[in-house]
Each structure stands twice: as C-alpha cells, then as structure tokens.
Amino acid sequence: MAPVQNGRVLFNTIPDDYPVPGETTVYDTSQTIDIENVLLNGGILIKVLALSVDPYMRGSLRAPEIGSYMPAFTLGQPLNGYGVGVVLRSELPGVVAGAHVRGVLLHQEYMIVPNLAAATLEVIERDSRLDLSVYVSAAGMPGETAFMGWREYSDAKKGEVAFVSTGAGSVGSMVIQIAKQDGLKVIASAGSEEKVKFMKEIGADVAFNYKTTDVRAVLAKAGPIDMYVEQLELDFRSMFKLQLARFWDNVGGDTLDAAMEFANNHSRIIASGMWTDLRYFMIPHAKVEFSLDFTHVIGYNNGYAPMKNPGLIFAKSLHIHGFIVGNLRPKYRAAFSAEVVPKIASGEFKYTEDVTRGLDKVGDVILAVQKGTNTGKAIVRVADE
C-alpha cells in the first residue's frame, strides 16, 4: 500500500485576541505515512476518529515561556487535545488492532504513540448504543468533570439549591441532571434563549439568559432570598464555571459576585477550569500554577469585571473548590463508568453535540467555542472507521 496523506492542524501564530482560522492554526497536508510499514518501536498506530474542541485550548495558544497548568502548544507542531481513535496496528501487549482508545491525541489523521505514552491512553469498552463521539463528550471528559467534581465536593442533600452557570455547556448540562437526580432545586444560566430552552428540557427549575436578565433579580426571586423568607434551608452546592479569559461576556466576576451575595453561610462554589484575566496568558511567569485573581475576572466583550465583594468569602465562610478532572479520575473512573455511562446510553441523561466533519475545520471550531456560538459539545469528526 502506498503512503497516504496525514493531514495535520499546526499551531502557526500566537493570537492577541480571538484565534484566527488559517493564521493561528493552519491545516497542513504535506506529510504522508506508510500505514503498513511505518516503525512502531513497541507502540501503536492510531487512526484518529473524533477530537474534542474545548475552551481551555485558548490558553495553550500562547508563548512557551508563559506558565500555566496546561502546557503551551508548540509553534509549527500539531495541536493536541482529547480524542478517540481506532488502533490500526499494535506492538503493545494488551492492545490489539481494532480496539478503540481515547486520551490526548494529536490533531492529525494518523499518529504513532510510543510504548510509554500509549500507557496513558484508555481502551474503551464501547456501548453499542453510543456513537464514538460521545466518548469525548457526555461519556468523556466533560461528563467526568461534572460527575467527579460533584461527587467529590458538593456534599449535596435533597432539597438544597444549586446554581449552575454555563448550564447548557457540556459540563454544566450534566451537572444539572446529576443535581436533579440527587433531589436538588437547580437554577441555571446560559447565553442564549436556545440554551435556556435546553436547560429547562433537562430539568432546570429556573433557567435564564444572563446576557438579557439581571442575575440578582433571578436569585432574589427564585434563589436564596425567597428561600430565606419562607424559612427554607438553602445551600449553594454547585457553581461550575467553564470560562476562558475574555470568553463568557462578563459571566465571570459579576455572576460569581451575585452567587456569593445570595449564598448562605458555608456554601460551596465548585470551579472547574475558571480562567481569569487575559494578562495571565500574556506575561511570562517563572513558576505559575493555576491561580484565582479575586480582584479582576475578565468578561469577553466588556473588559474587566471587578469582583466587588471578595470579603464575602470569609464573612460567609464560603468554600471554594477548584479542581482539574485528571486529579479525580483515578478515584472516580469506575463509578463514572458504572453509574453515568449507562444512563447516557439509555437516554436518561441528555446531551447535545455540535459535530463538524473534517480535520481542516478545527480552526473554525476553536473560534466558535471561544465565541460561544456552538450549540452543543464541540466535536470535530476526523474520519469514519
């Protein structure tokens, strides 16, 4: 068999603002691969089938000297991200040709994974009712983030109230359904009427568009103030934020401010991937890990959204939990597979996907995710089996 094209999406230039398809990233078809004869050196050859495009990727489109909890993409090299593929050839014990694997994959059509790196991939025990794309959406990292963060930090009790921001997103929508399953009242926000409709369909008791609605008015009517007046116990147990620097149009500081204002003492805020202040990605740091700037949280179109009342954190004894799902996966992976995936497969847990076909469309999808115009979990379908 003659060598075949191995298309790749390369990191080409560092963006100042929104990534620009064709400039920030470029689709390259200059590389070929001999599928039958390429040396594996004890590893595996994967055909990439589907790739997840996520908000956090904006943070990796930066200079390498700028620190973060996620590595920077390398200029001139393929992007990488969560994906699923099929094994074409294998020299790795326990992994056979035809197996489906998921994990961090390169944004290219075919890739060789060395022996040691292959150990970080997960062989999928696929449910025949689910398309492979679901294993990078509801049954993948977004679903894991929702379930594992909730299980670890929520301490949820029936009758409590949860406020879920970005509730129509791939993480937030799962949080809503898990919270309802646990018997909580759920208030949820998103950035369009279409997304508000979806949140109601999956069980949110109160759903609103934060771009057109005063969050404080909603919380005063449907949240803690009403609950307090009627002498019902309230505890905010979930506020999942998937935010990118300058992405969610002010949902950052102001929404978090409002939640703290209307939260009961000892409430919990769970932050999964909150990104603050675009300057964090523009200024080199010698040693930087993920940090929260409680003074300025940036909104995409409106500049800085200053947090007005950080003192409420100690005044109300609020508990803020930030986490990265990879740290929780060893503890909860088995429970997620046993409890959540079957409910996704049966249709009990709903999800939406925004699938775009073609590796050459990755740049467009990255931009759509940054602008929030995708209507479900953003996935690029690279190939069929």
TrEMBL record:
<dbReference type="InterPro" id="IPR045010">
    <property type="entry name" value="MDR_fam"/>
</dbReference>
<dbReference type="Pfam" id="PF16884">
    <property type="entry name" value="ADH_N_2"/>
</dbReference>
<protein>
    <submittedName>
        <fullName>PKS-ER domain-containing protein</fullName>
    </submittedName>
</protein>
<keyword id="KW-0560">Oxidoreductase</keyword>
<dbReference type="Pfam" id="PF00107">
    <property type="entry name" value="ADH_zinc_N"/>
</dbReference>
<dbReference type="InterPro" id="IPR036291">
    <property type="entry name" value="NAD(P)-bd_dom_sf"/>
</dbReference>
<dbReference type="GO" id="GO:0016628">
    <property type="term" value="F:oxidoreductase activity, acting on the CH-CH group of donors, NAD or NADP as acceptor"/>
</dbReference>
<feature type="domain" description="Alcohol dehydrogenase-like C-terminal">
    <location>
        <begin position="171"/>
        <end position="277"/>
    </location>
</feature>
<dbReference type="InterPro" id="IPR011032">
    <property type="entry name" value="GroES-like_sf"/>
</dbReference>
<dbReference type="InterPro" id="IPR013149">
    <property type="entry name" value="ADH-like_C"/>
</dbReference>
<dbReference type="InterPro" id="IPR041694">
    <property type="entry name" value="ADH_N_2"/>
</dbReference>
<feature type="domain" description="Oxidoreductase N-terminal">
    <location>
        <begin position="39"/>
        <end position="114"/>
    </location>
</feature>
